[in-house]
C-alpha cells in the first residue's frame, strides 16, 4: 500500500477520527507482546522499527552482518519474507528463489549473509542455529514475541520521525513511541546531523534511550552521475528519499515514479518506463531492492543504485555487538 499522506502531517480530522481504531491496534500489539519468546543458543539481535514502512532496516541489517562477519562471527539473518509466498523455514538460494518466492529484502540481504525466510520466526531461528549460525539477526521482528532478543535496535528515519504519533490506521505507528522505546536497547536515527537533532527535539520520548546516528550512502560503482539524465523509479516505503539521493549525486532526474512498497512490476508498467526513458534519452535507474523484483529479461534495462549504511560512531555499535560475545573480547 502507499503511505497515507496524513500520517506524516499535522493531526487533522481524518487522523482524529481514526485514532480510536489506532488505540485498538496498539492494544492488540501490547497483548501479543506479553508472550515470552523462545531463547536461542546464540545471541539474537533484532533490527526493527516502530513505524510501518521504510525506515532503513534493510541497509542496517546488511551493515550489521558485515561488521559481525568482519569480527569473526557467523551471522545468519531470519526474515518473515514479506511479499513472498514461501512459508519456510527455508534458506534463501539465488539459484532457485525469486522475489515472489521469498520477498525482495531477503533476496537482497542473502548476498551478504546466510538468510532464512520463516513465517514462524522461532522455527527460522532454530533452523539457522542448526545450520551453524553464531549470531542471529532478526529482520523486522521488534513486534514479534516468538524469539527472545539479546539486543533490540529500533531504526527511525530522522526526517520522517514518528509521523503524527498515532497508531495504524490513524498514523504510521505499530505501537506508541514510549511503549516501543521502553523495550529498545538502542535507537538508530538515519539522516543528516541536523535532521537527527530535530528528531531529538521533536520527540522527548527518546531521552533515556541510547541513540546513535547513521547515514545512507551509495556504494561505489564507478558510475559518474553528474549531469546524467535519469528516469528513476522505486517501490519502497519512501521513494522520494531515493530520488533525493540521485539528485545529491548530481543526476538530472527528468522523470520520477513512485510505486507502493514491495509492489510487483507489471509488464505494462515496465514497458511504459522503458518507452519513457527512450523518448527522454535518459537512463532507467532504480533501487537495489527493486532490482531483485524485476523480471530477469528486464534487469539489464534498469541500472540499480546500491546503497549502504555508515554509522557515525562505529565504535559504539561495535562495543554493543562485542558485549554479546564475552568470549571474543
Briefly characterize the structure.
The longest helix is centred in the N-terminal third of the chain and has 20 residues, at 13-32.
Q: What percent of residues are in strands?
A: 15-25%
**Which blocks of ≥5 consecutive residues have pLDDT under 50?**
none
Give the second-level CATH assignment, the architecture of the largest domain.
3-Layer(aba) Sandwich
Q: Total number of helical segments? A: 11
Number of domains: 2
Q: Find the CATH topology of the largest domain.
A: Rossmann fold
- The helix-strand sequence is HEHEEHHEHEEHEHEEHEHEHEEH
Structural class: alpha/beta
- Major sheet size, sense and barrel closure: 9 strands, mixed
Shape: globular
CATH class descriptor of the largest domain:
Alpha Beta
Order of strands across the widest beta sheet?
3-4-2-5-1-6-7-8-13
Please give the radius of gyration in angstroms: 20 Å
> What's the end-to-end separation, in Å?
45 Å
Helix content: 25-40%
How many β strands by DSSP? 13
Overall pLDDT confidence:
91
Q: What does this 3D model show about the protein?
A:
This protein folds into 2 domains: 44-217 and 310-328, Rossmann fold (3-Layer(aba) Sandwich); 229-305. The N and C termini lie far apart (45 Å). The chain is an alpha/beta fold and 329 residues long. It has helices spanning 13-32, 57-70, 99-102, 104-109, 121-130, 177-183, 193-202, 239-248, 267-279, 288-291, 314-322; strands spanning 44-48, 75-79, 90-91, 115-117, 135-139, 151-157, 186-190, 211-218, 229-234, 252-258, 283-287, 303-305, 307-311. Helices cover 33% and strands 20% of the residues. It is globular, with a radius of gyration of 20 Å. The strands form 2 sheets. It has a 9-stranded mixed sheet with strand order 3-4-2-5-1-6-7-8-13, with helices on both faces. The chain has a 4-stranded parallel sheet with strand order 10-9-11-12.
Amino acid at each position: 500500500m502507499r503511505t497515507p499522506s496524513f500520517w506524516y502531517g499535522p493531526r487533522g480530522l481524518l487522523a482524529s477520527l481514526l485514532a480510536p481504531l489506532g488505540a485498538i491496534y496498539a492494544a492488540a500489539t501490547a497483548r501479543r507482546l506479553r508472550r515470552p519468546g523462545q531463547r536461542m543458543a546464540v545471541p539474537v539481535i533484532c533490527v526493527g522499527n516502530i513505524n510501518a514502512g521504510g525506515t532503513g532496516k534493510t541497509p542496517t541489517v546488511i551493515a550489521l552482518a558485515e561488521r559481525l562477519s568482519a569480527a569473526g562471527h557467523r551471522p545468519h539473518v531470519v526474515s518473515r519474507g514479506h511479499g513472498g509466498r514461501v512459508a519456510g523455514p527455508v534458506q534463501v538460494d539465488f539459484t532457485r528463489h525469486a522475489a515472489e518466492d521469498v520477498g525482495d529484502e531477503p533476496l537482497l540481504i542473502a548476498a551478504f549473509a546466510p538468510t532464512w525466510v520463516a513465517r514462524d520466526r522461532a522455527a527460522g531461528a532454530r533452523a539457522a542455529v542448526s545450520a551453524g549460525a553464531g549470531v542471529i539477526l532478526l529482520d523486522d521482528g521488534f513486534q514479534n514475541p516468538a524469539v527472545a532478543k539479546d539486543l533490540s535496535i529500533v531504526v527511525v528515519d530522522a526526517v520522517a520521525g514518528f509521523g503524527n504519533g498515532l497508531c495504524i490506521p490513524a498514523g504510521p505507528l505499530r505501537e506508541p513511541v514510549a511503549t516501543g522505546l521502553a523495550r529498545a536497547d538502542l535507537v538508530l536515527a538515519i539522516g543528516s546531523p541536523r535532521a537527527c537533532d530535530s528528531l531529538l527535539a521533536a520527540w522527548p520520548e527518546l531521552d533515556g534511550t541510547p541513540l546513535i546516528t547513521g547515514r545512507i550512502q551509495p556504494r561505489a560503482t564507478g558510475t559518474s552521475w553528474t549531469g546524467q539524465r535519469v528516469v528513476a523509479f522505486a517501490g519502497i516505503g519512501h521513494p522520494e528519499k531515493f530520488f533525493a539521493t540521485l539528485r545529491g549525486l548530481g543526476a538530472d532526474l527528468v522523470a520520477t515514479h513512485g510505486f507502493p512498497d514491495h509492489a510487483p512490476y507489471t509488464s505494462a508498467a515496465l514497458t511504459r518506463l522503458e518507452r519513457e526513458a527512450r523518448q527522454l534519452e535518459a537512463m532507467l535507474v532504480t533501487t537495489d531492492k527493486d532490482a531483485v523484483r524485476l523480471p530477469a529479461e528486464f534487469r539489464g534495462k534498469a541500472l540499480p543504485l546500491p546503497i549502504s549504511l555508515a554509522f557515525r560512531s562505529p565504535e559504539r555499535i561495535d562495543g554493543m555487538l562485542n558485549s554479546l560475545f564475552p568470549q571474543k573480547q
